[in-house]
């Protein structure tokens, strides 16, 4: 993923939580290719770390979980 860069346009999260989101998304994209699977991974990780209920939408086709 060295040629891609995360851009956070607007967030209501701490800087630490934003970095966690970027790191988690990078992990998910290394592990999965389907947008829905990436979204599910990020959602489940955030539910574990920051308590439920999180929603995650990924990509141009809006894969969500």
Describe the structure in your own words.
The chain is mainly α and 65 residues long. It has a domain at 15-50: Protein Inhibitor Of Neuronal Nitric Oxide Synthase (2-Layer Sandwich). Helices cover 51% and strands 6% of the residues. The chain is built from 2 helices and 2 strands. A two-stranded antiparallel sheet has the order 1-2. Helix 1 (15-31) crosses helix 2 (35-50). The longest helix has 17 residues, at 15-31. The radius of gyration is 11 Å and the shape is globular. The mean pLDDT is 88. Pfam families: Dynein_light.
Q: What's the architecture of the domain at 15-50 in CATH terms? A: 2-Layer Sandwich
Average pLDDT, to the nearest integer? Answer: 88
Spatial gap, N to C terminus: 23 Å
> Which of globular, elongated, flat, extended, rod-shaped describes the shape?
globular
Strand numbers in spatial order across the main sheet: 1-2
Strand content: 5-15%
What is the count of helical runs?
Answer: 2
Give the helix/strand class. Answer: mainly alpha
User: What is the CATH superfamily of the domain at 15-50?
Assistant: Protein Inhibitor Of Neuronal Nitric Oxide Synthase
Quick one: biggest sheet?
2 strands, antiparallel
For the record, the CATH class of the domain at 15-50 is: Alpha Beta
Helix content: 40-55%
Query: How many runs of DSSP E, i.e. beta strands?
Result: 2
CATH topology label of the domain at 15-50: Protein Inhibitor Of Neuronal Nitric Oxide Synthase
Low-confidence stretches: none
């Amino acid at each position: 993923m060295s040629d891609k860069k995360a851009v956070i346009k607007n967030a209501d999260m701490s800087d630490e939580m934003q970095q966690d989101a970027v790191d988690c998304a990078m992990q998910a994209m290394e592990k999965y290719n389907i947008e829905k699977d990436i979204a599910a991974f990020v959602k489940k990780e955030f539910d574990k770390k920051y308590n439920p209920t999180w929603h995650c939408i990924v990509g141009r086709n809006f894969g969500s979980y």
